Amino acid sequence: QVQLVESGGGWVQAGGSLRLSCAASGSIFSINVMGWYRQAPGKQRDLVAAISNGGSTNYADSVKGRFTITRDNAKNTVYLQMNSLKPEDTAVYYCNADVVGERSIIGIVNYWGQGTQVNVSS
What we know:
This protein is mainly beta. It has no helices and eleven strands.
């Protein structure tokens, strides 16, 4: 099995910064796309940012210019640097990864972390 563990969430005032981390562990051969999603109460879970194993990135329009996604393939870890935070960024942030297991039979399997809370106050 593969586990994704997020860290770095917390409380900040508007304009502040946080860095989220997500470390993948388990029977992993490789990880293709890794990304961050967020979900506020009563709303759907939306993509925030994603990064391929080659370093290509994709961002939601609402976070472009403020958030930066990076990854460390040697550590199977993805990061989300969040700057200029706004109250509307408040949500539970979930790590997501497409994983090829060491003895993969069916190919790529998608995994989710448990989520980390980010609260941005005005």
